[in-house]
Amino acid sequence: MRNIVLAVIVAGIGISLGWMARSYLWRRKLDRKQAFFGLPDNSESLLVVNREAGGGPDLTVTRHDVSALLELSALIKDCGAHAQIVAHDATQQGFGERTEFCVGHPAPNRRMAAHLASLLPGIQVNADPEPGPDRGAFLIGKEQYRLEPGRSEYVLLARLTADQGHKTRPVFLFCGQRAITTQAASRYLARNYERLARKHGDKTFVLLLKVVNSQAYGPDVVELVADVTRAAQTPLPSAAPGKSHSTS
């Protein structure tokens, strides 16, 4: 009987230690995730998005932007935080007050355009409405990345922080040449945030991603082109022509 009691006690201790170890590892993983996204328990965040063209006064969002918001909402919920969806022209908060996820092209998204102009002066986005080979192209430093709809499309994924102390919340940018690319970038972040957190910690980074053959694969095939953080933060010289990147 004594051996049985001892065995039960040992088993109970083992189960308790195992549960404590799993709880510790789960909490540690959650803490890292919350730190990377700037989302402690019960914190608030913003999802800033374009209004769909012709959508009227109500906030109408494109299908791909909805999918991006769903990806990001799941990340926010996993952190135990809350999200508020706001139109780009209705956002009136400063930088770093709450974690912000800004989704869309800078032409229709004023908030995105403001972030690029003030925080990433080394990036220009061609917003010319007239058709042409450079329409929608990204100029990053001296390199130009042209849009080939359905074949080769680019999107910027950035985590930006201001030097205002450890309580400053980050801003995440999903700046794509087309709506499907912002969905691809949000999915890339959801799948790779642990690796990005290990590499970059709580620092600023700007990644250029390439969405390959979206007409066949949708937003699922994404390649990391380069870490363009330094070029994105360095102001462009006047009238920089850039070197073009395209797929023939």
TrEMBL record:
<feature type="transmembrane region" description="Helical">
    <location>
        <begin position="6"/>
        <end position="25"/>
    </location>
</feature>
<protein>
    <recommendedName>
        <fullName>Secreted protein</fullName>
    </recommendedName>
</protein>
<keyword id="KW-0472">Membrane</keyword>
<keyword id="KW-0812">Transmembrane</keyword>
<keyword id="KW-1133">Transmembrane helix</keyword>
